[in-house]
Design a protein that fits this description.
The chain is an alpha+beta fold. The chain has two domains: about 5-210, Alpha-lytic protease prodomain-like, CATH 1.20.1510.10; about 220-310, Alpha-Beta Plaits, CATH 3.30.70. It contains eight helices and four strands. It has a four-stranded mixed sheet with strand order 1-2-3-4, with helices on one face. The two termini are about 15 Å apart.
Length: about 325
């Protein structure tokens, strides 16, 4: 009925795919360095930051695989394609983050009670390296983060890391100036809370998609009213809107119209689809027409008419 071009999708996919792959390799290497340095410096802040970075490496790996899977076209068993894979990845990843931060909070509490000396020099240099790395990764991911929940999740992780690393740099200067070692566990606790805050947002967004919730930023009432105001449409009911992936929405509904031949109802169908496409960016639609019965000739009255799928995929 109306075709929707998907070719732009793959181009953007390859760009963020290579960015994600490089970012993952760099982050994984940095995690190893940070764990070794953290243990040698006896710095819990470095170890917790390594944990944060490790979940980031996980985030990047999942986001990379999801971008890879999302690029695959739909097949007979996954008729909508594989867009949910990325959302599920973001969800699992956010849960692991939550578990990690609980462990860090516990550790930093024990450290606060009996502080141990830390080597502020190692803290400083590793954190400076961390700022450089995370800044680079964020720069690489920035373009993809606007329209993909997955890449956005990875981008926000990196932002959290950058803040954590800057905190560790400040902390190392404070330790150098005052010799107050409790700065280290305090920083770790702040990093842990930062992780929780990040994770919660991702859990909320991804769960909404997995539970077929109304897509973020869409208002159910305004979709209904704009459809009801179209010429020829008498009523709209059984309306469902849900998300296939982080940026693909689907809609199905029943539309009540006057008793008329299909040649006339075709125009109504086109206007319904064009308003959904233009105003709400919903491209996957299934519209079913129902006719108002006329009392004069009940034998002609068919209600409801068989569903008219208004969307054919052209890959």
């Amino acid at each position: 009925m109306h075709s929707h071009d998907h070719s732009h999708h793959h181009h953007h996919g390859t760009g963020s795919r290579s960015a994600l792959a490089w970012s993952f390799a760099a982050t994984a290497l940095f995690v190893a360095i940070e764990i070794v340095a953290g243990l040698r410096a006896h710095s819990l802040a470095l170890v917790s930051d390594a944990g944060h970075n490790a979940t980031d490496a996980l985030a990047l790996a999942l986001a990379w695989s999801a971008v890879f899977i999302q690029g695959r076209p739909a097949d007979e068993s996954r008729t909508y394609g594989y867009q949910r894979a990325g959302v599920l990845a973001a969800f699992v990843n956010a849960l692991t983050l939550g578990a990690l931060s609980i462990w860090i909070l516990y550790e930093s509490w024990t450290r606060l009670l009996n502080p141990a000396p830390v080597s502020q020099d190692i803290m400083l240099w590793v954190a400076v390296a961390g700022v450089a790395l995370n800044g680079g990764v964020m720069f690489a991911l920035h373009s993809g983060s606007k329209d993909d929940l997955n890449v956005r999740a990875a981008f926000i992780h990196m932002l959290g890391d950058l803040v954590g690393a800057v905190g560790i740099i400040i902390g190392s200067f404070i330790i150098r100036a005052t010799g107050w070692y409790r700065v280290d566990p305090i920083l770790s606790a702040i990093i842990a809370l930062l992780i929780v805050w990040t994770a919660w947002g991702i859990v909320r967004d991804s769960l909404n998609i997995l539970l077929e919730g109304l897509p973020k930023g869409l208002d159910f009432k305004s979709v209904t009213t704009s459809l009801q105001q179209l010429p020829g449409v008498l009523d709209v009911h059984d309306l469902h809107i849900w998300s296939l992936g982080s940026n693909a929405h689907a809609l199905s509904c029943h539309v009540l119209i006057d008793d008329m031949p299909p040649s006339q109802s075709q125009a109504i169908l086109l206007s319904v689809n064009s308003i959904l496409d233009r105003q709400f960016h919903i491209h996957h639609t299934t519209i079913q027409f129902e006719h108002v019965c006329c009392d004069v000739s009940p034998q002609n009255c068919v209600s409801p008419v068989v569903g008219v799928p208004a969307h054919h995929h052209h890959h």
